[in-house]
Amino acid sequence: MASPKKRKVQGGRVTPKGTQPHNIRQVETVRELDDTPSPAWVTYLLFGLLAVGMLIIFLNYVGLMPGIDDAHNGYTLLGLGFILGGIITATQLR
Questions:
Q1: For a tag on the chain, would you pick the N or C end, based on fewer CB atoms within 10 A?
Q2: Domain range spanning residue 63?
Q3: Contact between 29 and 88 (Cβ < 8 Å)
Q4: Long-range contacts made by residues 25-32, C-beta under 8 angstroms, separation at least 24?
């Protein structure tokens, strides 16, 4: 049995080199982000949130938080929330 005959494919450009399609729109330039540094209060907020979070967790660990005799998970979560707020603030710092 004979194999089917291969057909020749003619390659090449469909449009002449250097032409552009008629339906293309001109792309507007995107305004770049402002490269000015962050205000000083962002840095203070960042380190303040981290410090308050660590302080709450430490005071909870040694049992000095008000209203409890033992370590309480609510204060630990509150401290972790403050630390998370500091980390999120750090991502916005320029």
A1: N
A2: 40-91
A3: no
A4: none
| CA–CA dist 90, 88 (Å, integer) | 5
Contact 93, 43 (CB under 8 A): yes
CA angle 27, 28, 30 (to 5 degrees): 120
Q: What is the pLDDT of residue 10?
A: 74
**Tokens at residue 84, please?**
């998370």
Number of domains making up the chain:
1
54 lies in some domain: yes
Amino acid code (one letter) for 60: N
State residue 20's pLDDT score: 67
Cα separation, 48 vs 57, in Å, equals 14
Residue 28 in tokens: 């507007």
